[in-house]
Specification:
Layout: H1 4-12, H2 26-38, E1 43-46, E2 49-53, H3 64-72, H4 82-95, E3 99-105, H5 111-125, H6 130-150, E4 151-152, E5 160-161, E6 164-171, E7 177-185, H7 190-193, H8 203-211, H9 214-220, H10 229-232, H11 243-256, H12 261-278, E8 282-283, E9 290-291, H13 295-306, H14 310-318, E10 319-324, E11 330-335, H15 338-368, E12 378-385, H16 395-425, H17 439-446, H18 453-462, H19 469-482, E13 491-494, E14 503-508, E15 511-516, H20 520-525, H21 530-537, H22 542-547, H23 562-578, E16 581-588, H24 601-610, H25 613-620, E17 626-629, H26 630-637, H27 648-662, E18 671-673, E19 677-680, H28 683-697, H29 699-728
Parallel strand pairs: 2-16, 3-12, 3-16
Antiparallel strand pairs: 1-2, 4-5, 6-7, 6-12, 8-9, 10-11, 13-14, 14-15, 17-19, 18-19
Helix pairs in contact: 2-24, 4-5, 6-8, 6-11, 6-15, 8-11, 9-12, 12-13, 12-15, 14-21, 16-17, 16-23, 18-19, 26-27, 28-29
Bound molecules: adenosine-5'-triphosphate.
Residues 54-56, 58, 105, 107-113, 157, 159-161, 587 line the site of adenosine-5'-triphosphate.
């Protein structure tokens, strides 16, 4: 007996769950997604993981009617849908404890839309008391605010989130949302000072210039976006976007969350200061650098808006303060040339912006967070860049891929651990689950002993004083080559060639990625020197002073590096997620042109690899292919045992005995009984059971499907024969 119906479904419609594919390969995953998208099915499951293919058009699968369907559905029987996952998370939160939904995928794949759909679902099913209505309103308004400061136009997405976000919703005992906390990660602050061709900086800059209060624009002496070096490298305009209108939403959100007018004013003047700072161009091969002609006005405006003296600001930019010596350390000011000083100026702009972003998030949290929530009643939503591999990969990709390695670690340990725990609870014998544990890659990047890549990089940065960026990169790769991890099986160090600055390849769980070390050391140091910190702390602008207040007098300490900050915030995230029941949404961008319902196979293949979907299928199939409570199993397959009168374990045993008696091709060892569930080893057995069931319940329909399948196979064979004849000219497949 073949399980042809399953194959037919697989070939025509794609399987609902990829663990049911007849052959497991990345190519077959793509084929399945394609078949499903052809049938308007954008969601596919891999066990409990949901794959969401961006349809690039609105589909009639959302809204209240669909919410009600999933709210009342038996989840084990419902088709894959983001609402089904949202319902699982919501029920899990109410009945058990903290839940987390991890959404990943490349830019434009649909992460933010998925997060919004989740919020919509939870908001729809979770009560309407005045506290929760108020909270829903705040959460709703926080979106345009965070998007204005954290999103930008990129070539891939006009409204691309340039930061990772973890929103933890807090609920009361009745399951109503009463609060929340947002954490932000990896803001792409380099976008403040540079946006590539066709891209823009963060939306808020254009909004401010297009829709800011006239008195504010006049005080800041602000003009058009094209007038500012930081905004004019890319484009300044986005099709279909109304910057002035969006800016009004920002102001409204500030009012809703209670940011006083005075603070709003100060905040926007600092943004204006950043724009002027970018126009303070520096020149001169010798150190210290000088301002270019005309640069004095820009520097003065920046200094005025930051509330510091122009001479102090210039000195802080053109001199680097470093600590020298051991215990009785002294501080020296090293003059910087134009390139170095420009880097420091940009570092100030980036840091100022990123601190403003942090302040906004903190302000949001101060109104959202509540102590009245029930302990452990939370649902977290993590919307974060997926694994990245570009033609050229640098420090940013290393950080993003490191976070994704960590997330994969959690995925593996919680899934496998959960599976093993279930076996233990069910009294099943220990069954080893084989999978690739990427812990070794996490340690290669962040390890302490032996020091991993980040620590070698930090060590290099610590020993840098007045060297240029190229020398720093060379020193880093030398150190890495001599370090203990140099011979790590997942690392290959590459020396420089004419086309490539030295670098290294990491064998990640999702594939090999080659990183160039160009500018890694400088990006890691962030070039934020004490001179800048000390200058900003003298500001007469209370908002600016506050931004820098957290800095201790730390002229004698090196500032924390970017990789240390990422390790720390990622560590906190991991701890939070480890306490939760996780749910995963892997988003896929089907094509580059944003064309509705179209799959470019090569593109999707690439993402399937880098989202680690093959690994997900393997992990989901690692234990038993199928598990269900005795009752559920009996409910589904009772027709295979005519006259069956009982449910539970007895019903299950009788049913299986009947199947084995009639179908000798199924081995008894396929079925394992736990305390409350039945487990089935291979997917083939389930396919067969499904087929027997269909045959039993609807013989005529089944016979028609057999005929349809045979015709389809014959047509496929004829087609293959034609292709073979055309291609080789001599091979006819009979
Ligand atoms: N489920 C969906 N239905 C219809 N359109 C969608 C859906 N998901 C995404 N889109 C479309 O794709 C666009 C990009 O989606 P989104 O902004 O969510 O991507 P992203 O993964 O968050 O990207 P980035 O990482 O750049 O922020 C949306 O503006 C929307 O037009």
């Amino acid at each position: 007996m073949s399980y042809f119906m399953t194959k037919m479904t697989e070939r025509q419609n794609g399987v609902d769950d990829l663990t049911l594919m007849s052959s497991i390969s990345v190519e077959n995953i793509v084929t399945q997604l394609k078949h499903r998208l052809d049938k308007n099915k954008i969601y596919t499951a891999v066990g409990d993981v949901i794959i969401a293919v961006n349809p690039y058009r609105s589909l009639p699968i959302y809204g209240e009617k669909h919410v009600r369907k999933y709210q009342t559905a038996k989840l084990s029987d419902s088709s894959p849908h983001i609402y089904a996952l949202a319902e699982r998370a919501y029920r899990g939160m109410k009945e058990m404890g903290p839940q987390a939904v991890v959404i990943s995928g490349e830019s434009g794949a649909g992460k933010t839309e998925s997060a919004k759909l989740l919020l919509h679902y939870v908001s729809s099913v979770s009560g309407s008391s005045s506290v929760s209505a108020n909270m829903k309103q705040i959460i709703l308004q926080s979106n345009p605010l965070l998007e204005s400061f954290g999103n930008a136009k990129t070539l891939r997405n006009n409204n691309s989130s340039r930061f990772g976000k973890y929103l933890e919703l807090q609920f009361n005992g009745a399951g109503e949302p009463v609060g929340g906390v947002t954490s932000n990660f990896l803001l792409e602050k380099s976008r403040v000072t540079y946006a590539g061709r066709g891209e823009r900086s963060f939306h808020v800059f254009y909004g401010l210039l297009a829709g800011g209060w006239p008195e504010l624009l006049s005080q800041c002496q602000l003009g058009r976006a094209e007038d500012y070096a930081y905004l004019s490298q890319g484009t300044t305009y986005v099709d279909g976007m109304d910057d002035a209108k969006d800016f009004q939403e920002v102001l409204q959100a500030f009012n809703t969350i209670g940011v006083p007018m005075e603070q709003q004013w100060y905040l926007f003047t600092v943004l204006g200061g950043i724009l002027h700072l970018g126009n303070a161009r520096l020149t001169g091969r010798d150190a210290p650098a000088q301002l270019e002609r005309g640069g004095e006005y820009s520097l003065e405006m920046a200094a005025y808006l930051f509330g510091v003296a122009p001479a102090d600001l210039l000195k802080a930019i053109t001199h680097k303060t470093v600590a020298m010596g051991g215990r009785r350390a002294s501080v020296v000011n090293i003059p910087q040339n134009a390139d170095q000083a420009s880097q420091i100026r940009d570092a100030l702009a980036k840091e100022m912006y990123s601190r403003i972003f942090d302040v906004i998030v903190a302000q949001l949290n101060s109104v959202m967070y509540t102590r009245d929530a029930q302990f452990g009643k939370t649902i977290g939503i993590l919307d974060i860049y997926g694994f990245e591999i570009f033609k050229e990969n640098g420090f940013e990709q290393l950080c993003i891929n490191y976070v994704n390695e960590q997330l994969q670690q959690i995925f593996i340990s919680l899934t496998i651990r959960g599976e093993q725990e279930l076996y233990r609870q069910e009294g099943l014998p220990w069954r080893e689950i084989k999978y690739f544990d990427n812990k070794t890659v996490v340690e290669l990047i962040e390890g302490r002993n032996p020091p991993g890549i980040f620590r070698v990089l930090d060590d290099t940065c610590r020993s840098l004083h007045a060297v240029d960026s190229d020398t720093a990169d060379t020193k880093f790769i030398e150190k890495l080559s001599m370090s203990a991890v140099a011979s790590h099986p997942h690392l290959r160090i590459l020396s420089s060639t004419s086309a490539f600055t030295a670098g290294f390849t990491i064998k990640h769980y999702a594939g090999d990625v080659t990183y160039s070390v160009k500018d890694m050391a400088f990006k890691n140091m962030d070039n934020l020197f004490h001179s800048l910190v000390n200058c900003m702390k003298t500001s007469t602008n209370p908002f600016v002073r506050n931004l820098w207040a957290r800095e201790e007098e730390q002229a004698h300490r090196q500032p924390s590096t970017s990789s240390t900050k990422i390790r720390t915030s990622c560590g906190q995230l991991v701890q939070t997620l480890m306490r939760c029941q996780p749910h995963y949404i892997r988003c896929i961008k089907p094509n580059e042109q944003k064309a509705p319902m179209k799959i470019e196979e090569k593109r999707v293949l690439h993402q399937v690899r880098y989202l680690g979907l093959l690994e997900s299928v393997r992990v989901a199939k690692a234990g038993y292919s199928y598990k269900a409570t005795f009752d559920l199993f009996v409910q589904r397959f009772y027709s295979l045992c005519p006259g069956l009168q009982v449910g539970g374990v007895d019903g299950c045993r009788q049913l299986i005995a009947a199947v084995l008696k009639k179908h000798s091709e199924i081995a008894k060892s396929e079925f394992v009984f736990g305390h409350t569930r039945i487990f089935i080893s291979s997917p083939e057995t389930i396919f067969m059971l499904e087929e027997f069931r269909e045959q039993q319940m609807d013989p005529a329909g089944y016979a028609a499907k057999v005929r349809e399948y045979e015709q389809m196979e014959a047509a496929a064979n004829r087609q293959e024969a034609k292709v073979a004849t055309r291609g080789g000219g001599c091979c006819i497949i009979s």
